[in-house]
Amino acid sequence: MNADVSLVVGLQRLDQRIAELRREIAILPEHIATIEKTLDQQLRRVEAGRAAVSANQKDRKRLEEEIKIQEQKISKLRDQMLQAKTNDQYRAFQNEISFCETAIRSAEDRILDLMSESDPLEKAVRTAEAGLKQKQAMVDAEKREAEQKTATDRAALQDLDREREQAVVRITPSIYRAYERIRKKRHGTGVSEVLDGRCGACNMALRPQVLQDLRKGEEVLYCEVCGRMLYVVPAESFEDQIEAPPGAASSSPTGV
Ligand SMILES: [Zn+2]
User: Do 33 and 131 lie in a common domain?
Assistant: First the structure.
């Protein structure tokens, strides 16, 4: 392999690891936000449960107040009843009293209902609160893990950046610039391995002359379609590629 191309292949490997680390570091805040969102759901469950318990208590209080008012009304009616002059008046007071008594009974029934509803509601709140606590611990642990991972990634990235600087100075500047140009244009791949006589990146079949020149390793060659630098791995695998009978080692036609 051409010495520069061989260095560029190593550089590309570094660049791919760098890109992967950068991606990992970049998605981390999003990952943490997603984790925290699951906490929101649990928090809303707790809040809804607490609101239901408090509404239940409020309703009971309101009904108890209503019973008190009805009782006061009854006692006032009883006083007035003592001064009734006619049977009709007496019956009218009695009707009003029994109306108040019905209202009290219905309020009492409703209070009993609310009391029996209150236990499950309170239990639901306790369950939701326990769930929230558990989830919070999980989220905290996941966040810590994610932050640790970022710190590790950042340190690894620094090492790789240093390694890259050292790799770059060994490459002929014009070849390095060409690699950078192609890499930026071609989604991070500036140099492509030849597989089965084809450019491994764009799959274009290469002319036999190009394959032969590549094998010699004297000059830097580029794919005529995607423009990437080309390389073949070891010499014997290159021999395999052109001399193997069709279909012997590969499922795709070699085109050579
Ligand atoms: Zn290509």
Answer: yes
Instruction: Kindly report the CATH number assigned to the domain that includes residue 98.
Output: 1.10.287.1490
Together in a domain, 220 and 149: no
Q: Which domain holds residue 34?
A: 22-168
Cα of 181 from ligand 1 centre, angstroms: 15
- pLDDT digit string (tens) for 138-159? 999 988 998 899 999 999 999 9
Q: What is the pTM of this model?
A: 0.64
91-103: pLDDT as tens digits:
999 999 999 999 9
104 inside domain: yes
Q: Is residue 256 part of a domain?
A: no
DSSP 124-178: HHHHHHHHHHHHHHHHHHHHHHHHHHHHHHHHHHHHHHHHHHHHHTTS-HHHHHH
CA of 185 to the centre of ligand 1 (A): 13
Report yes or no on 87 lying in a domain: yes
Structure tokens at 224: 């005529």
* Cα–ligand 1 centroid distance for 206 (angstroms): 9
Span from the CA of 242 to the centroid of ligand 1 (angstroms): 19
Lowest mean pLDDT among 31-35, 154-158, 163-167, 176-180: 31-35
Q: Which residue has the higher pLDDT, 84 or 58?
A: 58
